[in-house]
Amino acid sequence: MLAALLTAYLAAAQHGESQKPPLLNSERIEQRFGSYGIDVLSSDAAVRVSDLYSLEHGRKICRTFAVVLYPAEPDPRYADAHAEILAGGSIGAVFKRHGWIVTKTNLYFGTLAPTPKVAALMHDASGRPLAVHVYGLYVTKDGTTLPYATIAEVHHPDYLTLSRVREIYGGTDAVPADEAGVVQRVLDVTEEKMR
After folding, report:
1. What is the pLDDT of residues 116-164, one digit of tens each?
2. What is the CA radius of gyration of the chain?
3. CA 138 – CA 134 distance, rounded (Å)
């Protein structure tokens, strides 16, 4: 799965389609709301669920509900960073601190209906659809690019709407037909974790 996505990412980079990556989600939340924190809601070797939040009048407001699907066998070249992430570190910030460049291959943009659990985390009972962005996350260091995870980010409607997510990230990247199931798998896991 991730090998095919890496091939698509490298092909795009060779054709000059890869530009300076946008802000990390953690950086964007802090820039927009003046604070950033992360609570890992559940985690194991396969899946991590996180609440990326800002503080507003002393309370945590979930800005992004993130579901991370790790590879079955993480690459030993990023073992130190991966250990920090498994211990609760923010993925992009940890890799950046370890000298890796983080890039994304956009797989899907859409919306999901809020659930009571996520609406409570977001302190938003409006019932508005939540923008979801699914992507493959890659890390690059010393000329080597490695796949890291497939991630779904579900955003608070006052933070990022579907049109804003598309504006930031552009279109989706080409995904080989035999890899199309990865998007459905991460969306299924995300909907399960939102309950």
Report:
1. 999 999 999 999 999 999 999 999 999 999 999 999 999 999 999 999 9
2. 16
3. 13
Q: Kind and range of the H or E element at 59?
A: strand 59-69
Residue that is written with structure tokens 């990022």 in the block = 160
84-91: list long-range contacts, CB under 8 Å, 24+ apart: 85/48, 86/43, 86/45, 86/48, 88/38, 88/40, 88/43, 90/26, 90/38, 90/52, 91/137, 91/148, 91/149, 91/151
Phi, psi for 180 (deg, rounded to 5)? -60, -25
Query: Do the Cβ atoms of 110 and 50 come closer than 8 Å?
Result: no
Whole-number Å distance between alpha carbons of 187 and 36: 25
Vertex 153: Cα angle to 152 and 155 (nearest 5): 150
Task: Give percent of the chain with pLDDT exceeding 70.
Answer: 87
